[in-house]
Amino acid sequence: MPDMKNLAKNTRVMVPVGDYLYRGIVAEPPADHTRIEGMICIELTPPVKTMKPYDSINYVTCPVDRVTLGWL
Are 11 and 23 in contact, with CB atoms under 8 Å apart? Predict the structure, then answer.
């Protein structure tokens, strides 16, 4: 198993949002976000549609141990 802390940018992963897993790719966190040890930034592919007042969720930051490698 690869070292989850050092996943390469654009690696395909599944990430939990609520009770569901969504497809995403490893991304660089936005410049205005601080990097926290053990956390990883995922760009959802495609973005998840949400209810108002938001349109969609584009990025998720979560603990590395919650990410699953590959797309299901």
Answer: no
